[in-house]
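Lab notebook, bench 4. Still working through the backlog of constructs that have no structural model yet. Next entry is a single chain of 97 residues. Request: give me the structure tokens for it.
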Amino acid sequence: MGRGLLEEAQDTMDASRGEVPVDTGALRDSGDVGSLNVSGSRAAVEFGYSASYAVIVHEDMNNHHDDGGPKFLEGPTLARAGGLGSRLAPDIKAVLR
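Model written out:
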């Protein structure tokens, strides 16, 4: 299950990088997918942007950008959430066998 979860995080980050506003590229380049963390029956992967101003740019719905826009991480995450269960199902089934 962990491998599929890590791939989902990377695919979401890839989609997000296509939506992040670009001025110098520093914000886009600060996007990162962490390592897989497994604890008992739980698996998690953290991903996001580490630029100090990332949250401000992400949340500011009034700022115009020539390239990209606000909610550049939330949008791709929500868009991919709908099919997450079906994409992870084969990995989950393999763990339960």
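Notes after review: The mean pLDDT is 92. The first strand starts at residue 31 and ends at 39. Flag for follow-up if needed.
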